[in-house]
């Protein structure tokens, strides 16, 4: 990996609503204007999970500015960004907050003192999202004029993917929350009913099927053939919503996290993750 790559990590982004979060920037300092790639993690994810740092370095080596951040209510803390120590915030998360965080991550780059503005081409932004993060960028990316391309990595095909059963929603409302189990950390994590209320008030805003076609740029959907969490049929569904200028890349012998794990103790990406990165970089440069 290019030794000149600079990692600016755990930059505090202060928001007027006090929903602050941490952001990383990986880039190769050379005083050249670079396209900006912004990465959104998924549900029960965080910016430093697995090999995301190595992947960021690969993009930086190709002369992109790669930005990744923790959603303000993803359950991690400012003091400990790799552990789910703030489950109260996790319970209060919703798509409005994640959309606000994504917008803030773009805006802060225009004034941030940590990187020279000579390195940043604010008019050329590319969004990448993993799993639910993919659903978010595919749904909202059309609202950002500077976005040139969107890539979904194992993306959900709807932001209400987990709530299709009316009985589930009734039980959620009655109890006030539902619990999800994190098998890695052995934690039960509550998500309050306000999440559904926020979504249901703004269905049109957060409906992937009707919003993705509003984005006129190219879309790439990379999915593992063996994805058990979000089966690859999701990529076909997304393409059906935007048939034109949408590509699908199915990776064989590949799971939901592209065969990565956390913690990731390797110094190099595995073959599947490497293929994912190469395919996405080629798409961004040539799409």
Which key phrases capture this entry?
287 residues, alpha/beta, Rossmann fold, eight-stranded mixed sheet, two-stranded antiparallel sheet, 24% strand, globular
Outline the fold blueprint:
Layout lengths: L5 E8 L7 E7 L6 E7 L11 H10 L3 E5 L17 H5 L3 H14 L11 E11 L1 H9 L6 E7 L12 H10 L1 E6 L4 E6 L1 H8 L6 H4 L7 E6 L8 H9 L4 E6 L19 H16 L1
Parallel strand pairs: 3-4, 3-5, 5-6, 6-9, 9-10
Antiparallel strand pairs: 1-2, 2-4, 7-8
Task: Give your account of this protein's structure.
The chain has 287 residues and is of the alpha/beta class. It has one domain (6-161, 206-286): Rossmann fold (3-Layer(aba) Sandwich). The chain contains nine helices and ten strands. The protein has helices at residues 52-61, 87-91, 95-108, 132-140, 166-175, 194-201, 208-211, 233-241, 271-286, and strands at residues 6-13, 21-27, 34-40, 65-69, 120-130, 147-153, 177-182, 187-192, 219-224, 246-251. The strands form two sheets. It has an eight-stranded mixed β-sheet, sandwiched between helices. It has a two-stranded antiparallel ribbon with strand order 7-8. The longest helix has 16 residues, at 271-286. The mean pLDDT is 97.
């Amino acid at each position: 990996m290019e030794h000149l790559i600079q990692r600016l990590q755990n930059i505090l982004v202060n928001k007027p609503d006090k929903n602050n979060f941490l952001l990383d920037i990986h880039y190769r300092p050379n005083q050249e204007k670079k396209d900006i790639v912004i990465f959104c993690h998924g549900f029960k994810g965080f910016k430093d999970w697995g090999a995301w740092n190595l992947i960021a370095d690969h993009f930086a080596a190709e002369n992109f500015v790669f930005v990744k951040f923790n959603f303000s209510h993803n359950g991690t803390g400012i003091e400990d960004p790799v552990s789910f120590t703030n489950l109260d915030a996790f319970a209060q998360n919703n798509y409005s907050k994640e959309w606000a965080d994504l917008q803030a991550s773009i805006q802060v780059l225009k004034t941030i003192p940590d990187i020279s503005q000579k390195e940043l081409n604010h008019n050329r932004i590319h969004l990448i999202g993993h799993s639910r993060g993919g659903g978010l960028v595919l749904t909202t990316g059309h609202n950002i004029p500077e976005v040139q391309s969107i890539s979904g990595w194992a993306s959900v095909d709807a932001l209400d993917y987990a709530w299709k059963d009316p009985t589930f929603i009734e039980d959620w409302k009655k109890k006030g929350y539902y619990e999800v189990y994190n098998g890695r950390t052995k934690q039960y994590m509550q998500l309050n009913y306000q999440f559904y209320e926020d979504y249901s008030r703004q269905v049109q805003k957060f409906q992937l099927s009707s919003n993705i076609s509003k984005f006129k740029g190219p879309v790439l959907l990379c999915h593992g053939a063996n994805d058990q969490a979000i089966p690859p049929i999701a990529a076909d569904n997304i393409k059906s919503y935007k048939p034109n200028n949408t590509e699908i890349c199915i990776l064989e012998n590949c799971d939901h996290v592209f065969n990565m794990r956390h913690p990731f103790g390797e110094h190099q990406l595995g073959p599947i993750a490497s293929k994912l990165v190469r395919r996405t970089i080629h798409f961004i440069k040539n799409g």
